[in-house]
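=== RUN LOG ===
request id: a7f3
mode: sequence -> structure
chains: 1
length: 441
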Amino acid sequence: MKIAMIGTGYVGLVTGTCFAETGNDVICVDVDAKKIENLRCGRIPIYEPGLSEMVKSNHERGNLSFTTRIEEALQKANICFIAVGTPMGEDGSADLHYVLEAARSIGRHMVHDMYVVDKSTVPVGTGDKVRKTIQEELDKRANSLKFDVISNPEFLKEGNACADFMTPDRVIIGSEAPDSIEVMKQLYEPFIRSREVFIIMDLKSAELTKYAANAMLATKISFINEISNIAERVGADINKVRHGIGSDSRIGYSFINPGCGYGGSCFPKDVQALIKTSTDIGYEPRLLNAVEAVNHSQKQILAAKIVSKYGDDLSDKKFAIWGLAFKPETDDMREAPSIALIKDLTRRGAQIAAYDPKAVSMAKECYLKDVEIAYVQDKYEALKGAEALILVTEWKEFQNPDFAQIAKLLAGNYVFDGRNQYKKHILKKFGLNYVQIGVQE
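=== RESULT ===
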């Protein structure tokens, strides 16, 4: 099939590349000329395992191309995906500016009947707005071209996005038009292992499914963090509690890891957007409000533990930070717990030496550009002269470090673990004090 992909961000680039991988002719569109030129030269704007190789190979084969001209893409395509950003507005709502601008461009430049697929994460009712916007532009042209709007939300995990797309656990299609459903079924056939994976529903239900999925996962994280705070205060061990409840097949172990809060491009934005949608229709989403409140306070927990140990004035203290990205296997720092932690510590006068395998450039150029931080090339280099090590992101290279080396390089003897990766009795052998989430010292 011939596909136009509007947007070359995380979702658009992964989706377009994976469709090209199965032989489709994909042309990706973006208004950012520099980004398009970089993509043509094989320079990928994000870190995602396996993506760079797939982009380069499909571009060389000629079935993945890049342009800034939407009219060029629409000239060839019979399916057009909208995969642009929906950033969070000041009131928590999803900003649909880019989505509706893409819809306007489609209406202005489409030259034949088309299937328009909304891949962006959008509030319920957005599909109707996209349809209305395209039709208004067609009416201005006195054009009778036919089109249908389909919802096809993405469920990609950063750090595993390519694998998630190639072997999805579900493909949601929001449409009640038989021909649209059939086209989407053909498009996704190479990726579908069983018929149960391909799930058809109406447009609004598909839009809500995406938000509900992310809100559910965020709820599990905030729940275990709430329990961890209780456990610490009553003298229980949250790690043992997690094992006890996770062994129940109705609960499971996924997303019940205690820590310093969730971040990223999805959970914070989508929970707040769903809260805004709920309040707009006159419903108070009490559980979602609690999920958001718990996560906000959880991002302060590491700083609070450090202040409890060293006091409010940290002007003569240096701390080593391991991990800046909001999760492993990505360079994404959107809403990352490291941001709140580092800003809090430096505001109290602390010096920071930080290491992350992939996210240092993001920190320097965007999220922590106004904060004075010493970025290092090696995790052990960050430890030199530091009062304590603070683990924020659970990258694999942090899971089994050389504790003797840690003890030797640190000026102090504390390890603050924001992801509960280590064992207290092991660190104790090396003279290290271990502070974790949900466990008393």
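=== NOTES ===
The mean pLDDT is 96.
The longest strand covers residues 2-6.
=== END ===
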